[in-house]
Amino acid sequence: MEARSSPEAALPTTVLFTGFPGFLGSALLPRTLRRSPDAQAVALVQERWLDQARRTLERLEATEPALAGRTRLVVGDITRPGLGLDDDEAASLRSGPLEIFHLAAVYDLSVAPELAWSVNVEGTRNVVDLARGADELVRLQYVSTCYVSGRYPGLFFEDDLELGQRFSNHYEHTKHEAERIVAKARDAGMPVTIYRPSVVVGDSRTGETQKYDGPYYALQLIARQGRVAVMPLPGDPSRVHFNLVPSDFVVDAIAALAPHPGALNRTVALAAPHPPTVLGLCEAFAAHTDKKLRVVPVPTTLSRFSIDHLPGVGRLFKLPSSTLDYLTHPTDYDVTATTALLAEVGVRCPTFAEHVGAMVAYHREHPDVGSAAMV
């Protein structure tokens, strides 16, 4: 019997990804396509990342042949109006059910203001404009950051955004401005879920990561010393928390919540419910590298000046001065509502004690991983 076509038959959903072939896009694209056998993906790729995107897609399709032929790589640029797409491509995206994963951003804490604003703010504005023009927007899945909190002193809740906070760098400031754009669209009726990861580190089981930054600078400093590791720390490291989460938790959470009705128009804080203190973080790194930790208190201002201006200090510590702000970060993140929401989809954030061993082991076995992220 022949299948009868009908003008009322549902069109397959197109899923647009920005930020491919970055870590999140490469992990979420196949999991999103598994949700529906009819869905098709469009990955928006900068020209300079096109070869890498092709290799990544080939690897994903070889690993999972059922996904072959379901993803198109399209050259574009989120910093340009219409994402740099030609009229036909843009019209094709708008014409049927469209889900958008907006993952592209500049994650460098030391980023120049012009680049941060162009990518993080104007790029997000352009994605929202495209979403606004869709005939049927399924949902805009937007990855923000916990650090839209800036240096807010105290407990920052999932729905907090405008609390008069100041920011440590252009990354935080521009991600805050970008989230304001998304929140305004949501409040005007756009279906949205906002995800706020804290500092993302390696996979909780394997430790695998694409880059060593953030807490890895402290791990590297401790690991390359002798039996006694001297760690200069600003502020009171026994009171300041360092919130870090493994990458597989972030992927699992976004993949599970993206289609979940309970996550619609919610902001979810993908942060650790019980993060270690800065001192506890360093003590764990020392324990897992068989070192005895000796903490040396240092003033933050002097540390920053020394790293940036005194010859040899930056090369000795191999620690960007921008990282110091996160060793004295005054904000804690309430994840009560997010934890309850994640329980509905069977996702739990591993404790630091559960994944620090894998983090240190991967770092020991893969010393050549760099600190640069895709831009």
UniProtKB/TrEMBL annotation:
InterPro entries: FAR, FAR_NAD-bd, NAD(P)-bd_dom_sf
Gene3D superfamilies: NAD(P)-binding Rossmann-like Domain (3.40.50.720)
SUPFAM superfamilies documented for this protein: NAD(P)-binding Rossmann-fold domains
Domain Thioester reductase (TE): 18-254
PANTHER family: MALE STERILITY PROTEIN 2-RELATED
Name of the protein described by the UniProt record: SDR family oxidoreductase
Natural source organism: Actinomycetospora chibensis
